[in-house]
Amino acid sequence: MTGANSFSVSGYGPERAGWTRVFARDSVARRLDWPILLSALALSGIGSLLVFSATRNRTEINQGDPYYFLLRHLMNTGIGLALMIGTLWLGHRALRNAVPILYGLSVFGILAVLTPLGSTVNGAHSWIVLGGGFSLQPSEFVKITIILGMAMLLAARVDAGDKKYPDHRTVLQSLGLAAVPILIVLLMPDLGSVMVMVIIILGVLLASGASNRWVFGLIAAGAIGAIAVWQLHILDAYQINRFAAFANPDLDPAGVGYNTNQARIAIGSGGLTGAGLFHGSQTTGQFVPEQQTDFVFTVAGEELGFLGAGLIILLLGVILWRACRIARDSTELYGTIVAAGIVAWFAFQAFENVGMTLGIMPVTGLPLPFVSYGGSSMFAVWVAVGLLQSIKVQRPMSA
Amino acid sequence: MTNIPETGRTPRVQIRLVVIQILVLSLLGTLGGRLWYLQIREGAAYQKEASGNHVQQVVQPAVRGDILDARGVPLADNETRLVVSASRTELLKQKDDGKAVLTKLAGVLGMKPADVMLKVRLCDAKTPQPCWNGSPYQPIPVTDKATPRQALQIRERSEDFPGISAEPEAVRRYPAPGKANTAQVLGYLSPVTDAEIQKAKDTDSPYLRSDMVGRSGIERTYDKVLRGKAGVTRYEVDNLGRVIGKAKSDAAESGSNLVTSIDSRVQRVAEYELDKAMKAARQQYDKITGENYKADSGAVVVMEAKTGRIVAMASAPTYDPNVWVGGISGKDYKALTGKNSDYPLLNRAIQGQAAPGSTFKVVSTAAAVNAGYPFDGRYPCTSSYSVGSQVFKNFEGENFGPISLGRALEVSCDTVFYGLADREWKRDGGINPKKGQPKDYFYKTAHQFGLGRETGVDLPNEVTGRVPDRQWKLDYWKANKDAWCKSGKKDGTYVEKIAYENCLEGNKMREGDSINYSIGQGDTLVTPIQEAVIYGAVANGGTMYQPTIGKAVISADGKTVTEIKPKKRGRLPVTQATLKGMDDAFAGVVTRGTAAWKFGGWPQNKIPLHAKTGTAEVYGKQTTSWLATYSKDYTVIMTIAQAGTGSGASGEAVRNIYSALYGVQGDGSIDNKKALLPEPQKSLPKVRTDGTVVDPKVPGDPAKEVEAAQKNNTSNGDTQQSPATSPSPTSTSNTRRRPRRRGGRRMLT
């Protein structure tokens, strides 16, 4: 169960999967979930255009090179694709063995952010700047390790056939496992990521078959926690403003309210077919802040209109729909839990990100999976796609 | 690795996975629905908002149209000046609110730093002029008289002068052709205020921040026509204000030119003669007050009798309208509007009102005829008219015996009208009128003559004057009785006695009121323009015209010419026969009546003149002089406050105006070449193909030329040797001046 060992036993079955057999009958390529892969590629492609449109005139951040962000986004997508292939190569079961190491690394990563190594971007102290224009956001990877870690714990006894459902002790252990990084991320404070992680826990618990008491207990705890945070002034003022201003932009007209308002104007002005790529005046005029990252959806809304923005939602829907199928079709609880965790992650993050640009969710710093500019997020979601593919690919062989 | 196919598909997990799936899809559905709502349902609204978001307007001011006289001579036009402006928004960004920059600027411009600071502060209720009452976002002009050298200094060292600009700009100019300043008629401009912008926002003529707005006179009445439309270029800008594209541009449309009926030469003559007459009156001794006449204000109107077009309109005291250009200084503003000023901004031709004196007899005569007294009847012109203990004297106790109404006009016999008015008053029931409507012929006729309301002249803030009829008396009594009853004493001073009387029966039409009223004394108030309309109507056969100054609007390209037609306002309530009788009587005033001593040697057979003099008492002041005259085509009304009699104060001036119009020389001959306007200007100025108007030059000073023409031949006519400077009555047999009236006339004791 060492890391080195797990690398050597990748794949599953009587023979090692070789690249020569990729397209053979029953080969990995044939069994891949192509809708997910193509949708993810399409989203990344659309994302690169939107990022390009949003940044080609922003000379103050693109270092004078209009293609700076486009190239980096494409490169990130390429690295993400490689990570997916790597994940698929290793297989989620092999990674199951590496979970303790990965978990340890990711927790170490977010701890490092809290040290002077970390940097603050947009009020959240969640980055590690690597130099050369690159930076890492370890909390993105924590999302994966929480899913893998919890799945490992919760599924162990069930997959072993000992139990039908995870017992309370296991659930408690898994919650403890998730709680450590969540608390660290809360200190950053990166509220958006905390919310995603809580939703992931909910999805994971649901899929694990854990007792209803845990599920509802978690929901209740979340609600109580939210109220407590609100009442005890644990949050900074800017965070409260951010929360309140999505519904009423006048609360903070120069800050979050401005973002919300401009985002809504950008999307609303798109109409059915949009202003055309590179022709959105809100985008060209740089009225929406953070438009290549958190508010990238506004570019789609303005320049591609209802059809283009709807296509993005549709593609996300395809990925989520297929991921749900993978979760349901997995022959073992481990795969089901991992897939369900990924579904919860993607679904909430997409809903939150698009929802905040549409003014129905509070503004938090969450990227839109595949579309937003940002290496860490891109790498994490592609690793997740790799996990989904791995679960799908390996299912029939275990029959 | 165990292999239990059922795991992961236990019913509980399976159901929950379906729930998750449904939940996820409904979340995505929510997003789709919201997207549809924003983009399709509300899309149009957001598109509008988006376009407003990133569009900046750059305004090119429209060139304001010229105001031209009847021949095309510009009375108001534009010149290019170097304007140095300060942007408040830029100045306020600086540490000391721009004080250092403004001080430096004052140094370059040779002004006092304090003056510059005052000019760029904003006006509010408590801030006196100088201050900027335009938009705070518009650059504020500090001076429009910068020299090219100063402008260069500022522009070359722009880093030393942040927020200061020096640009050539079109600036309003009132060139005063031939020294005709025409100030009150032209009016003036000042920057548009925020309140006005808001108010006019949704009208068809919205203001731009940079607009100058006509505040008075022609500039105000025809503001919309003259202003044109500023050019607006809409640039798309990004959130930092950088231009990223050009959205739309509307070229500036220059304002139209307004042709007026003013003739700058006649205007100059009128102004000059008014001023001269006032100066002359001040040399005259007033026996009643025991000091020289003050002659503190006056007005003259020259109107085309057959159209109502104003050829000249002057008001004194006057001012130079150019003081408004480029923002008025505090000193100038105080001089124009302060408590100690003589209010030169008032156009006394339409805003000055006074009792009309005997010029009112034109109304009384018509009223008498309408009440059934034949024009050619015989009415006693006794030396006095007694009512109880009250004695109303005729002027200087003259007695003409029984005379017709025409003759009564000619010699201005007061007692004839006293008697008629008194009879009518009694017929209406006296102090307590009969049940039902009293006939009130004298008051009704005044209203029919257009008194007590505006003439509708195309100038702003015209006053109505006043007909002191029963309704007015009642209203006035209601408003003042408390004060009267408090201060009134039966045996007190004159004022206290009057107050006592008024307290008791000021709400009623008393006998003395009606008697006084019949000769234009008492509470009656009339404006010069109202007199011009009335005497113009007598001249033209009975049609009252709405006086107009605007004659035609010529678009900036000269292609469309819209004439402003004369408007009839009604007819005098007088038959043609009576009118003829009055006309003859007014001619008699010039040849043998009250004005004859000033019109000796006038070629009456060639250019018949008609006149009526008037001298009105004003309590506590010297008498107001009136002279209402008309020829075939023109009516000239002149009034001077505190200047004595109508003929004495204004006779010569009015004569000189007619001389100028018709080219009458000092010896009574007529030189058509020197006639400024022997017939009213019918044609409009010619327009060149480029849209500019052909403007004849006005060389020299028309008034001085006219004066010279009169002086060359002073041998003829003793009137020229006895100008108004000579002390009071040079009474020849038919010289009926009215230098004074006894204050007791109005007393009821």
UniProtKB/TrEMBL annotation, chain A:
Subcellular compartments: Membrane
Record's catalysed reaction(s): [GlcNAc-(1->4)-Mur2Ac(oyl-L-Ala-gamma-D-Glu-L-Lys-D-Ala-D-Ala)](n)-di-trans,octa-cis-undecaprenyl diphosphate + beta-D-GlcNAc-(1->4)-Mur2Ac(oyl-L-Ala-gamma-D-Glu-L-Lys-D-Ala-D-Ala)-di-trans,octa-cis-undecaprenyl diphosphate = [GlcNAc-(1->4)-Mur2Ac(oyl-L-Ala-gamma-D-Glu-L-Lys-D-Ala-D-Ala)](n+1)-di-trans,octa-cis-undecaprenyl diphosphate + di-trans,octa-cis-undecaprenyl diphosphate + H(+)
GO biological process: cell division; regulation of cell shape
Signal sequence, renumbered to the chain: none
UniProt KW keywords: Cell shape, Membrane, Transmembrane, Transmembrane helix
GO cellular component, one term: plasma membrane
Broad EC category: transferase
Pathway: Cell wall biogenesis; peptidoglycan biosynthesis
Topology in the lipid bilayer: Multi-pass membrane protein
Coiled coil ranges: none
Molecular function terms from GO: lipid-linked peptidoglycan transporter activity; peptidoglycan glycosyltransferase activity
Transmembrane segments: 34-55, 67-90, 102-121, 141-158, 170-188, 194-210, 215-233, 304-321, 333-351, 371-388
EC number: 2.4.99.28
Name of the protein described by the UniProt record: peptidoglycan glycosyltransferase
Organism the protein comes from: Streptomyces bungoensis
Phylogenetic lineage: Bacteria, Bacillati, Actinomycetota, Actinomycetes, Kitasatosporales
TrEMBL record, chain B:
Transmembrane segments: 17-37
Keyword terms, alphabetized: Cell inner membrane, Cell membrane, Cell shape, Cell wall biogenesis/degradation, Hydrolase, Membrane, Peptidoglycan synthesis, Protease, Transmembrane, Transmembrane helix
Highest taxon of the lineage: Bacteria
SUPFAM superfamilies, alphabetized: beta-lactamase/transpeptidase-like (SSF56601), Penicillin binding protein dimerisation domain (SSF56519)
Record family assignment: Belongs to the transpeptidase family.
Principal subcellular localisation of the protein: membrane
Region (Disordered): 673-749
Coiled coil: none
Biased composition annotated in UniProt, kind: Low complexity: 722-734
InterPro entries (alphabetical): Beta-lactam/transpept, Beta-lactam/transpept-like, PBP_dimer, PBP_dimer_sf, PCN-bd_Tpept, Penicillin-binding_protein_2
Lineage: Bacteria, Bacillati, Actinomycetota, Actinomycetes, Kitasatosporales
Residues of the Penicillin-binding protein transpeptidase domain: 298-658
Protein name stated in the entry: Penicillin-binding protein 2
Biased composition (Basic residues): 735-749
Regions of compositional bias (Polar residues) in chain numbering: 710-721
Signal peptide limits: none
UniProt KW Hydrolase keyword: yes
GO process annotations (BP): cell wall organization; peptidoglycan biosynthetic process; proteolysis; regulation of cell shape
Pfam family, any one: PBP_dimer
Subcellular location: Cell membrane; Membrane
